[in-house]
Amino acid sequence: MRFDYHTRYREGFALWRSPFDRNLYALLALILIVLPWVVTPFALGELSYLFILSIASLGLMTLTGFTGQVSLGHAAFVAIGAYGHAWFLSKGLPLPLSLLLTALMSAAAGLLVGIPAIRVSGLYLAMVTMAFAIIVEQVIGHWSSVTGGFTGLAVNDPSLWGASLAGPKTFYYFCLIMLCLVLLALLNIMRSGTGRALIGIRESEAASYALGISVKGMKASAFALSAGITGLAGALLAHHLKYLTPDGFTLLLSLELVLMVVIGGLGSLRGAILGAVLISLLPTAISRIKPFLPDSIAKQFGLETFIFGFVLAVFVLFEPMGLNGRWLKIRTFLESFPLYRRDTFKRNKRYMKSERYR
Amino acid sequence: MNTSLNTPSLLLNVTHLSLQFGGVQAIADLSLKTYSGEVLAIIGPNGAGKTSLLNAVTRVFDPSGGQIYFKDQDLTQLPRHQIAKLGIARTFQNIELFETATVLDNLLLGRNRFFQGHWWQQVLHTPALARLEEEARAEVETIIDFLDLTAWRNSPISGLPYGVRKVVELGRAICAKPELLFLDEPASGLNPEETRDLAFWIDDIRKELGITVVMVEHDMSLVSAVADRVICMAQGRILAEGSPAEVQSNPLVVAAYLGA
User: Fold this and answer.
1) Which is it for the CA torsion B195, B200, B204, B206, positive or negative?
2) In angstroms, rounded to a whole number, what is the distance separating the alpha carbons of residues A275 and A260?
3) Which residue of chain B is at minimal alpha-carbon distance from A201?
4) What is the pTM of this model?
5) Beta strands A153-154 and A243-244: pairing type?
6) Which of B181, B178, B175, B123 has its CA nearest to residue B145?
7) Which residues on B lie below 8 Å from A10 (Cβ)?
8) How far apart are CA B86 and CA B66, in angstroms?
9) How confident is residue A162, by pLDDT bands cut at 50, 70 and 90?
10) CA-wise closest residue to A56 among A257, A296, A271
11) Which residues of A touch B89 (CB under 8 A)?
12) What is the mean pLDDT of residues A99-119?
């Protein structure tokens, strides 16, 4: 049994709930720090990619999970980030400045998409964002003077104060640090007034207006913040890929990001990362089990897409709260062990919501 | 005792307000005044325009004509989210709480109109911001004590009974420290015991917190218990105005309710 015993209010919004939690995360950090000396360079590259996807997933989670705005076009912001960063670096800008400019540029693009988002929501917003992603993909394909068109664009190696960050180990640490910074910033935002306001907009616009939240402004800002973070992930992805072509930023990437936040559990930063871990490990896992499958299945075209869809369907049906929801259930079970109530997480019947106005 | 109680001043002044939805005249040439320190109840049969009046004043709907003055400020010229900043709070007929958030977060959101730190302080979680958050939490805790919500502090709204949700919504509105509080059917769906508690709270809200209350309500026992003045509306117009007993015995009001 675990009890919260707080003697100061700030313990109520501390990053770790208990010393045990803090030690657990310290252990995780230690493992992540020593990992480059244990695993192969190939696995290290995959882990860097996982960190990059986690950042993008956190970006989309800010928008979809916290603010409740659907986006089926986040690959566009990844692309804008990747190409923007590559272009800035080719002009000789130093890495930190280029990263900053990339994030700002991507945020500006997010604001551009966010403005129609003030007017439309739900399915229509999904269509607007998807259309934006398709437009961006086409522009990248045809604006050859800047993006290299379909032949592609080589990305300069990342370097900081003369030291190259391109090696597997250094790039791994670079991505890990960026992920930690983004995660920490988002954790801080979500436990302060802005984060509460975002959740307020997701849950009830009428009440948000009545409490003085500028709903339209917050929605647009959420788009900008989300796009900025996703653009940052794009910049890192440019270094991971080393060579950019438009077909790396298709609708499939957008959908993978949506899968990550939904499977991870909407409205939770932990969920965004768990979702990214699952989705990025799934292709590797599939290729590992392929040899054990009968030929008629293993050689089947579209096996991966099928399994992706299947996993999503299973989650929607059996665990709508996602991986984070499952984690919370297990944790609550352990913490309240002999006294766990079986229906703690049972979803209540919703009361009638008539006469709603927005 | 709040000093404004002794010298009532004009707080809300609605003049010749009208509100149309296509051919439907929800509010027709309605004028009403609210003075500081009073509890004003608005009653009336269904479709009389009570909630529409509330929604027009809190800028959910754009009035088709007339003025709404809060002190010296014309509310009809303001965007919807600016209303709260003036010190006007409201609750909703069909509870509009933030369902997945905890009671504590809902109440903290009630304090949205106050300074919550600059964006860079929020991103970095500076010591100044931590202090600000602690102060906000302390303020919220007094409201939690006031409304007896201690037991529910960390529970998400989605798991709470209906009666408690009503109280949380009231608490969220009080957290905004308003001067004028609109309650839209605060007693609907409450049992007699909860309604009695509510009557005491409304009394305390006026006396201890010095908040002027305007409430739309059907429960005449609650209205008689707390209201200083009652306005009865029917078909978008004011039918009768006076003390609870006067309005209740007014033949026009009886006719409007019973259709005689």
Assistant:
1) positive
2) 4
3) B98
4) 0.89
5) antiparallel
6) B175
7) 130, 133-134
8) 20
9) confident
10) A257
11) 210-211
12) 90
Distance of CA A101 to the CA centre of its chain: 20
Let me know: does A223 contact A69? Beta carbons within 8 Å: yes
Domain borders along chain B are 3-87+178-258, 96-160
Got the DSSP string for A231-278?
Answer: HHHHHHHHHHHSEE-GGGSSHHHHHHHHHHHHHH-TT-HHHHHHHHHH
φ, ψ for residue B39 (rounded to 5)? Answer: -115, 115
* Spatial contact of A194 and A278, defined as CB atoms under 8 Å apart: no
Name residues 324-353 of chain A within 8 A of B (Cβ). Answer: 347-348, 351-353
Q: Do B134 and A9 touch (CB under 8 A)?
A: yes
Which residues have C-beta within 8 Å of that of residue A13, sequence separation ≥ 6?
A191, B133, B137
For this complex, say whether ipTM is above 0.85. yes
Band the pLDDT of B189: cuts 50, 70, 90: confident
Q: What angle (nearest 5°) sits at the alpha carbon of residue B55, between those of residues B51 and B56?
A: 115
User: Do A227 and A110 meet the contact criterion of CB atoms below 8 Å apart?
Assistant: yes
Residue with tokens 């308003």: B178
Calpha distance A344→B156 (Å, rounded): 11
Question: Which CATH number describes the domain made up of B3-87+178-258?
Answer: 3.40.50.300
Interface test with B, best of A4, A189, A192 (most B CBs within 10 A): A192
